[in-house]
Specification:
The protein has 114 residues and is mainly beta. The protein is built from 1 helix and 11 strands, in the order ββββββββββαβ.
Amino acid sequence: MKMILASGTQKAKVFLDGRDLDHSDVFGTQVVKSIIIARPNILIAIEAKFEPEEIMGVSYPAGNVLTNITLDPVTGKYIKVEKIQGGILGATIGNGTHTSEETCLPSKMPYKSK
């Protein structure tokens, strides 16, 4: 994961495995809304909107997902809270708030600046 904080006219950016998490295509739009460093935690807010779609003869309405990620690079604790409304995700895993937690490898130098 690589993060670029907002500065001047440039908005905050997050890259995961080299992929920009801000992207848009025919299936929808995903935007990193904010990145906040509140040591030791990094807080990331992402909003995704999906267009109506049909998959294997099943129609799904438009949907959106608001994702809040809390990452503690010192301990490696990763918490993701997603609020799902509509779309294929709402139909398959359910509308509402879904929380997951993982433990990743802690960063060796979590606050090194480049």
